[in-house]
Amino acid sequence: MVFSLVKGIRKGAHVALDVEPVPVGKMDDSSYDAEDITVLKGLEHVRLRPGMYIGSKGSNGLHHLVWEVVDNAVDEAMAGFCTRIDVTLLTDGSCLVSDNGRGIPVKPTAEFPDISAAELVLTELNSGGKFGGNGYKVSGGLHGVGVSVVNALSIRLILEIDREGKHHEVEFRNGGERVAPLKAKGPAPNDRSTGQPRTGTTVTFWPDASIFEETTEFRAQTILERLQIMAFLNKGLELRFTDEREGRDHQQTRYQYNGGIIDYVKHLNATKESLFRKVGSFSQVEETQEVEIALQWNTGFHESIYSFANGISTVEGGMHEEGFKKALTNVFNRYARAKGTLKEKDDNLLGEDIREGLTAIISVRLRDPQFEGQTKAKLGNVSVRSMVEKATNEKLAEWLEENPKEASQILQKSTVAAKARMAARAARDLTRRKSALGGAGLPGKLVDCSSRDPRESEIFIVEGNSAGGSAKDARQPRTQAILPIRGKILNVERARIDKMLKNVEIQALIAAIGAGLADEFDIEKIRYHKVIILADADVDGSHIRTLLLTFFFRQMKPLVEGGFVYVAQPPLYSTLVGKEKVYLKDDVAKDAFLAEHPNHKADFNRLKGLGEMDFSELRDTTMDPAKRSLLQIEVEQAALADEVCSVLMGDDVEQRRHFIQTNAKDVRFLDI
User: Fold this and answer.
1) What CATH fold (topology level) applies to the domain 435-570+616-669?
2) Percentage helix, strand, coil, to 5, in the chain?
């Protein structure tokens, strides 16, 4: 689906930290002397605190190992020395990543004469060719912790290097312990395409199950999505994926886009109705930095701008986005006045008017990117803003002059968007006067909790009045609020904000959450830190969940990005074990139960809809924090989420059918 729902909260777990503080004066009185100081050597710290380096020990962290190795290969491609990268999932659970770049240097460095440069890169965190010198002009992996972290968190890793006509190998075990020094094993094999001795690096690693306790099984679709984006961002680079695991039929996929980000924009807009067929593009190259931009408008109402720096997704934007947006607004207003679309008495179009329906990719590469934070989510280089602004001012203006028909269509759409914006402002003002956005009043059907601390408060958005009544009786009044909604809310994928604000159910949602809408949404003002969707486990319930998730993603995106949105999981079955009633989430849980209890004789009752549960059953299965199961919603890749949101909720029935057929085999990862 649009959202990652695989981050399940285990039964009985609390997401909020209910940790009792240790009072001053009650601290452990054990000794603290010089002998208590510990220095972690080599990769020990990575194994002790893996979350600091890969984010988590779950599925996301597991796949982060793949990204670290692939990113090194992509850096070789950005440097102009690699044309092909292969990623293979092997039958024994390992992952192999191979490139045809230069190969990691195999000779010792002057500072470390007793170990090869390749072994140094694998065993020391702050080592690599990206901190100076002439190895890489631009690079994504700038923190120097990439492949060494993979080594630290693997039970086994084999590094193979083809360089200077020789094939070299070294193996590590148990988190980075070298089995034997790097050694030349013979001549490098010939490259099939050139007939010359191959050059490049191959890394094969086996994730350590003692670190990744949740799973060590890679998900093919997750890897494919990432590889496709890398192929779009690196014009002409060939990325090949093979899944050799049992039952996968040696699935092979190849990505190569000679149009680069132009093809990326076409791909994103394939799920929408384009305003015109052409994709605008321009670029600018300077001595230490360069920018490439591709853009196209569609008939929808949402802007989709995705920016990258050295191949890294800057989901929080930064200077390159700022420069683009400022110049985009200026260029179109100048053009509109020059062509007479805007008269002297008319106000300028706002940036949001012009960006309505825009799909754009901004890709910059630079020598010394300054990212804000370890997550590299925002680019801070001021020089990039100037470069992007200058390029957009000059080259987009030229594109508009060369494409007057398309320019006229964009201006016409922007003018309509400006009128809708003014209508939406009037609707907002009216709604505020009715206290829906102003916070002075709450919707009458909201059954609020007594706590005023958002950190411990949660709201259940419940389908139907009867289910709302049961939920009201089943709740914990101090911390749990109930908001019943009637049936299916408006599909916001197909509606402008002025129409949206007239919808009663959406007004109630906005008022209850209390943080505004769209550009005015303020995450600091949310009234609940858990917004929980509670709907039946049937087709209609799934549709309602999808409509609500689409609304949150499009109009309250920080709520989703902050991890405040959850889906409740009412069970499908119940059965008796002795005199105790046991609830089972779905058919998978039922099968697992039968495997554990092969002699179980009691019947399985399929539970009725939420409205037909009595309050005690709803409390025990779905609402009690000590017993329930929740799924936390995540947006892992904004561009992918945007694309799938458009497929599922847009007008193209054929695209939707194709998506469902293609992804049906991965339904176990969706959970709704």
Assistant:
1) Rossmann fold (3.40.50)
2) 35, 20, 40
Distance (Å, rounded) from C-alpha 477 to C-alpha 347?
A: 51
At residue 300, the pLDDT reads: 87
For this structure, is 624 an active site residue?
no
The structure's pTM equals 0.70
Burial readout 177-205 (b: 16 or more C-beta within 10 A, e: otherwise)? eeeeebeeeeebeeeeeeeebbbbbbbbb
The neighbouring-strand residues paired with 309 are: 312, 364
DSSP string, 283-340: EEE-SSEEEEEEEEEBSSS--EEEEEETTEE-TT-BHHHHHHHHHHHHHHHHHHHHTT
Choose the catalytic residue: 538, 587, 591, 612: 538
191 annotated active-site: no
| pLDDT at residue number 23 | 37
463 is an active site residue: yes
671 tagged catalytic: no
Identified catalytic residue from 368, 398, 453, 540 = 540
Same CATH topology for 261-425 and 435-570+616-669? no
Please state whether 303 falls in left (phi above 0), alpha (psi between -120 and 50) or beta: beta
Active-site residue, selected from the candidate residues 162, 263, 292, 463 = 463
Kindly state the percentage of the chain with pLDDT values over 70.
Answer: 81
CATH of domain 261-425: 3.30.230.10
Q: Which fold does the domain 45-255 belong to in CATH? A: Heat Shock Protein 90 (3.30.565)
Choose, from 75, 536, 642, 643, the residue flagged as catalytic.
536
Residue 152 tokens read as 């630290």
The predicted-structure confidence for 581-590, as pLDDT tens digits, reads as follows 888 877 878 8
Check residue 639 and give its pLDDT: 59
| Model confidence band, residue 665 (pLDDT cutoffs 50, 70, 90) | very low
590-642, pLDDT tens digit by residue?
A: 888 898 888 888 888 887 667 667 788 888 888 999 888 888 887 765 556 56
